[in-house]
């Protein structure tokens, strides 16, 4: 997985335990923001449209953090529901490209304490940094919106500094290497370790070979076939989890 030699899930989680404090230190070093949770709580709230419509990319070490401290603590039913949502996002390419960690009922993140660094940056990324990415993504998805203007730093500043963002990204890349990802795979290219939660979780559960099979189904099978496969995978996983 991600070209990690002799990949074993148990080994990765053991490695992560030695890195978890370092990852939390990176998150804690970032300037505190205000505005997001305040506006979600209002009666005429923004509806958390950023989480509803956008799907963050996360580093592998960040995924393992969410997996260890949130996903694996779910009930079997909730975990299967999460996997089903990931399969739907990947295979059916749902029009709604929102984050699978977002709860549509509460309008809140289900794993706020283990959210990735991208979520810390959103709304406070300097325009000269955000705009090129926004313009590039706009070509791929015309429905994408600019970053939220309700968020600001608690200090009163509107944006984080480029130096702060770059430093935290570089620090997480260092942890990515320590968990076993080769330098050449620290990318969002094919095979890279910077991916969406659905892709990370499906690769973790199914393995890269099965993920390759899914990519074939994604591009060449009917919607009916895809829905049938999603149900079959979830039922097999439910049976496996219940027999553990």
Biggest sheet record: 2 strands, antiparallel
Widest sheet: strand ordering: 1-5
Span from first to last CA? 24 Å
Compute the number of structural domains.
1
From the spread of the alpha carbons, the general shape counts as globular
Oligomerization status of the protein chains: single chain
| Backbone CA Rg | 18 Å
The assigned structural class equals mainly alpha
Number of strands: 6
Please write the string of helix (H) and strand (E) elements. Answer: HEHHEHHEEHHEHEHHH
How many helices? 11
Average pLDDT score: 90
Detail the poorly predicted runs: none
Measured by DSSP, the beta-strand proportion falls in 5-15%
Helix fraction, binned, reads 55-70%
Q: Care to describe what's here?
A:
The protein is mainly alpha-helical. The protein has one domain. Helix content is 57%, strand content 6%. The protein has eleven helices and six strands. A hairpin with a 4-residue loop joins strand 3 and strand 4. The model has no long low-confidence stretch (mean pLDDT 90).
Write the layout of secondary structure elements.
Elements: H1 9-29, E1 33-34, H2 36-41, H3 49-53, E2 57-59, H4 60-69, H5 76-92, E3 102-103, E4 108-109, H6 117-121, H7 127-140, E5 152-153, H8 162-178, E6 194-196, H9 197-206, H10 208-220, H11 223-242
